[in-house]
Amino acid sequence: VLNYKSARDLGVATGDRVRFAAERHSASFLIAGIYDPGRNAVRAEYITLRPAQSLFETGSAVTLILIKGESLYRSDALADRIATLLPVQAKSWSREFPDVLGSMNAYDASAYLISGFSLVASGFAIASILIVSVVQKGRQIGILKGIGATSRQIMTTFLLEGLFISLIGSVSGAAIASALILVLGGLRQPASRPGGIGELLFPSDLTWQLVASAIASAIATTVLAAALPARQAAHLDPAEVLR
Fold it and tell me: For labeling, which of 12, 123, 192, 204 is most exposed (least CB within 10 Å)?
């Protein structure tokens, strides 16, 4: 199986024959298929095991096995486990290419930093809204405290208001963001060859754990932001407010 770029450079198509040469041997192979490796993928050709062993004089041995794990960042643990269980040398991509791992960690750190600042900004916005609400409802708060409402009850009321705002905002925001990710995740770039499938324009990995953590973070931030105005409302002097 040839990749599209090699087939284009050689001017061959499916059904043609090409000759591969090793150090001391060469062999002719029938092109069974052509695949598109993508714009940034490594160009590679694939032949069946037995002819490859004969071509490279490896006997019945297999010199390299590539394993695809479930997570990019668990490759070290996977390689260590394989080396423990089997008498082979196991290498992880992160140890072989530390520069790539460093770049990916930097991207992740930037994403978390932006998310953190967004949460802090939204927390200040919600706190400002609730502080204005306390000022506007000062007379009602004074009446409630005048007829027997305790400071704890007043504080609980404003905390519940913040919780209600956070539930509506986080759930609706998560739903809109998830729908947007699903729509954008289906967009593809133009194919690099006729009849091929283009790469995803916005690759994404949307999981329920990610959505749940985003909702939980938004709720926690909003409740914390509501604590200050709730405390302010609980300590209002009803006599001074109603004067």
Answer: 204
